[in-house]
Amino acid sequence: MTTNSNKQSRLRSIADSDMAVGWLFTLPFLVLWAWWFFYPFIQSFIRSFQDANFAALDEAKFIGLQNYITILHDPQFYRAVLHSLQIVVIAVPIQTVLGLLVAMLVNQKIKGKGIFRTIFFIPYITSQIAVTTVFMMLFKQGTFVTEFFTLFGFADTTWFADTRYALLFVSLLFIFQQIGFSMIVYLSALQEVPKDLYEAGQMDGASKWAQFRFITIPYVKPITFFVVSVATILGFQIYDQIAAISRYGALGSPAGATSTVVTYFYQNGIRYMNIGYGSAAVVLFFFIIMIITFLQKKLLDEKG
Amino acid sequence: METKKRLGFVSNYLLLIILGSLFALPFLYTIYTSFVTMQDVNKLSGFSNLTFQNYKLFFTNDAYNVPQWLINTVIMTALVILGNLIINPMAAFALAKLDFRGKKIVFWIVLGSMMVPYHMILIPVYVNVAQLGWLNSFAGLTVPFLYQSLYIFMLRQFFVTVPGEFIEAARLDGLTKMGAFWRIVYPLAKSSLITMSILAFAGTWNSYLIPSTLVSDPERYVLVVGLNSVKDAFFENTPLIMAGVVLTTLPILIFFFIFQKQYIEGISSSGVKG
Amino acid sequence: MRKKLKLPATLMIIFALILVLAACGSKNEGDNQTAPNGDGDKKTTVTMGFWGTAQDLKTYQDAANSISAEYPNIELKIKQYPSSDQFWNALPGEIAAKVAPDFIKISNEGALEYINKGLFAPLDELVKTTGVDMGKFNKAASDIWKVDGKVYGVPNSSSPAMFFINEDMWKKAGLGAYPTTWDEVQVAAKKLTTKDVYGITINLDPYHITNYAKSFGGGWGNGKTINTPENVKALQTIFDMYDEGVAVTPKSLGFGWDGEVFSNGKSAMTTGGHWYKSFLKDAAPNLKYAVVPVPKGTVNGSTLISDAYVVLDDAKNKEAALQAAYFMTNEKVQMDFLKLGNNSSLTSLSDKYFESNPEFKAVQPAIDYSTDFGYPEESKKFKDELVNNLENNILGGMKKSPQEILDGIQAQFK
User: What does the similarity note say (chain A) (predicted)?
Assistant: First the structure.
């Protein structure tokens, strides 16, 4: 009897301990992660120090840091990094702000909000290739879309065939699709904002803007960190859209205007079958995003 | 005051309608294109030339086993969501609300694994799956994706805002921390779990790279892969592809439309707030 | 408290690691693809990797079902890939996991890269031991699949590049005989260019550019002859037509490839190939077109596209793989492809092809002088470089001369 209750209380103390529950709860994730991510990743990481051809992986030669050295001397790599940064700098703030705005619009008590929510979500769930194809039909010379943009000083041209606009075209596509994602995440976060806070705010005579500024924004801050860093990571990883606009040419078409860190990896690692070199590019790419995410976390996620 | 309110209401609607039509346009154009013939692609030729032939092809040609592909997709998606509904919230809760040694490392593991393009680890993953004999099987398509770092990260950010008093109150009621999670936090997190399910549904349903690499038996294709195999060898049959896109997207739309109703302003955790 | 719990945590981690290792190691064996066969006698299973149309699949399935009549010891399986991209995505893993197909069909455009990487097996020895007859294929196709004196492919098709003309536009412009030289094309293109129509589509794609080069007696010489005067002249001709405003690249009109420009009546002429027939049948059934050989710059010259069956170096039974590949070139299978517009590589069927595809009759002589693409060993890199440079000029407003461009590329491919 005593041993039994002893046992029970010990079990209980385990189930109530941060250390035990913490590891127990993360264990399923960690096992799957080690098995399906870490182990494959380490293999690819080792490849980054090799001269490896996929037709004969067992014959790969160890070449030390040579792949990294070559990449860091390749001007195309820096061009790709610059393009990726440009996409992220343009797209991430816009999609975050619009995502929150749209989420607030469809969070109101209005008729047909379900339909509107669905509409805003559609671009995110439609295949990227399809959305790109349709955008390509819309953004070509002489359509009403490109003519509309001439109002803002853009030339009436086929955007994705023009080296000046192609990267912007990709950014627009990304914003367009990513808003649906941010909207639904924000929509869910808005559910968690206690309603009595707003009521108290109204009682104190706070304006709508003040309520937004001092209640909504702080409450969704952790989620904003999520939205921003995910958009950054996905922005760095844009591939399908670029592949679609360069379907019949070289990846990063026109003339490399849309080359990004990921297309650089694809081109060298997959297309030219130089797996070691491609892996090295991804490792560098990994560090770039890691640093950016780290800064974003410092900036936006003080709680963690 | 009344008029001002009404004005706000009208301008809200106007904004929604303008933004909404902007967002709907590409999909409407996709639907339109799925009903034209190859001759009319890229042209707005009016509604007289619309045809069902693209859809008909999917359901009449022996090579395209659309019902089977649909079933495969449903099974794959259901299994993945199920896993995600258990594994992700647990890890996210630990990262958000528990204080254990190594937590920071685990958190950066979560973030770090989102940053690698999947293509980089595709070859080792393929070998992994092949050695287990899981090629052309649901195990290969689902087991590696039973957790997803993206959603662990998302749920962790949601759980961070859950007041610590909840858990303390539960413990006063005699629950352990583990119990507090399953009995209190998990049910309360309904709206974020729905968000995750919707996103995971869309992501898995639409996934192409993995299923197209790990499955080579047309009987085991998922919808996206199957409908993409319909391409002609030399050129793309745009209307046919668009019909495929419409067929794939509709189920997600329905799923979303049903579950978005769960987002109702005002029902929130405020009641239990300390 | 903390100290006590270190142990269970460590145990859990160890448990997890064991799980991982067990899961990784367990099924290593038992997956070796042995061919279980009902009827006792040893059959060899050969897998063909394939991507293409449903029609092609049917042709291959039929062939697989009838192979036992010729090779009773072979069981042929067809493994379909959704697309060539998917094939190349899966292949490295398949090779590493030893589940790759034994032979595949690929085009000669860019095949050199794979051959040089050792992906395909040389067939000469196997031809001797299996006794298959490689003499039944036409010379042009056979030559293409011979690299450094070794045979690498069983040719399936051989089609020369072609030049397409929109017949109605041509007549309406009051033009006479169809052009045989680029000079004539240039003159005609000026007359054919109107407000909405360009005289000619010049897709900035290596396939098309290579044809211009060949017609000036140039070519890439597998990387050795990139910046020759002939190639410079070819590029100059292309740039001239762009400068005069009579040429267009599909991309600037928002199209994917040249065939779409042509089918939409946005250009009157274009270089192309046999696939135009099946495409135009669907995309522009009412368009009347004429087909002539690629016009001359200074000589008769164009590319030959030749699909072939190649045996993977990792194939388990290369002899059986070659036999099965060879079976795909029997007259029945070849007739099926021929009907789809693809010229057979069998000398015996050449006339039949032009009988059943009369619109291509004019290009029959071109088979004799059409040759391989001659890209450098790093074919894809070369193609990307070439396209990027041309796009930079045509779409990016750079003003590099053909000589500068080709010198720059030559420097990278010695």
Answer: Belongs to the binding-protein-dependent transport system permease family.
B216 shares contact with chain C (CB less than 8 Å): yes
| Res C35: pLDDT | 43
pLDDT tens, position by position, B129-151? 999 999 999 999 999 999 999 99
The total number of structural domains that make up chain A: 2
Q: How far does the CA of residue C203 sit from the closest CA of chain B (Å)?
A: 15
Two tokens at B235? 């050129």
Closest chain C residue to the Cα of A163, Cα to Cα: C396
What number is the average pLDDT over the span A158-187?
95
A148/A294 same-domain check? yes
What are φ and ψ of residue B98, in 5° steps? -110, 150
Indicate if A163 and A267 belong to the same structural domain. yes
Q: Fill in the amino acid letter for C126.
A: L
Contact A31 C250 (CB under 8 A): no
- For residue C236, the enclosing domain spans 160-304+378-412
CB distance B266–A17 less than 8 Å?
no
B32 and B146 belong to one structural domain: no
Measured between CA atoms, the residue of chain B closest to residue A293 is: B111
Check residue C17 and give its pLDDT: 53
**Cα of B44 to nearest chain C Cα, Å:** 13
C26 pLDDT higher than 60:
no
Answer yes or no: is pLDDT of A27 > 60. Answer: yes
Are residues C140 and C281 both part of a single domain?
no
pLDDT at C9: 47
Please report, for residues A179, A270, C215, C217, C291, the alpha-carbon distance to residue C370 in angstroms, rounded to integers and kept in the order given: 52, 31, 10, 11, 16
CATH of the domain at C277: 3.40.190.10
The alpha carbon of residue A98 is apart from the nearest alpha carbon of chain C, in Å, by 29
Domain of B174? Answer: 65-229
- Does one domain contain both B15 and B135? no
Domain holding A186, by residue range, is 69-300
Distance between CA atoms of C10 and C7, rounded to whole angstroms?
A: 5
Say which range, A21-35, B260-274, C3-17, C131-145, has the weakest mean pLDDT: C3-17
Q: Number of folded domains in chain B?
A: 2
Concatenated DSSP letters for C232-301?
Answer: HHHHHHHHHHHHTT-EE-GGGGT-SSHHHHHHTTSEEEEEE-THHHHHHHHH-TT--EEEEPPPBSSS--
Residue C51: list chain B partners with CB under 8 A: 233
Q: Which of A258, A257, A279 is nearest to A268 (CA)?
A: A279
pLDDT at C175 over 80: yes
> Distance, in angstroms, between C276 CA and closest chain B CA?
9
Query: Hey, is A153 helix, strand or coil?
Result: coil
Reported as a pLDDT band with limits 50, 70 and 90, residue A246 is confident
- Do both C119 and C236 map to the same domain? no
Position B72 in a domain: yes
A100 and A24 belong to one structural domain: no
B11 or A184: which leads in pLDDT? A184
* Interchain contact C12–B (C-beta under 8 A): no
- How far, in Å, are A88, A238, B109, B150 from residue A232 at the CA level? 6, 10, 17, 13
Determine contact: A267 vs chain C, CB below 8 A: yes
Q: Give me the residue label for tokens 């119990």.
A: B179
For the domain that residue B192 is a member of, what is the CATH number? 1.10.3720.10
In chain C, residues with a C-beta closer than 8 Å to the C-beta of A270 are: 88-89
Q: In this structure, are A18 and A127 located in the same domain?
A: no
Q: Best residue in B101, B121, B146, B240 to probe A by mutation, most A CBs within 10 Å? A: B121
With a cut of 70, say whether residue C32 has pLDDT above it. no
B37 and B118 co-located in one domain: no
Interface of A with C in 30-69 (CB under 8 A): 30-31, 34-35, 39, 53-57
Chain C contact for A12, CB < 8 A?
no
pTM of the shown model: 0.90
Q: Does the residue B87 lie in any domain?
A: yes
The residue among C5, C79, C80 with the most chain B CBs within 10 A of its CB, best to mutate, is: C80
Mean pLDDT of C94-100: 89
Whether the per-residue pLDDT at B6 is higher than 50: the answer is: yes
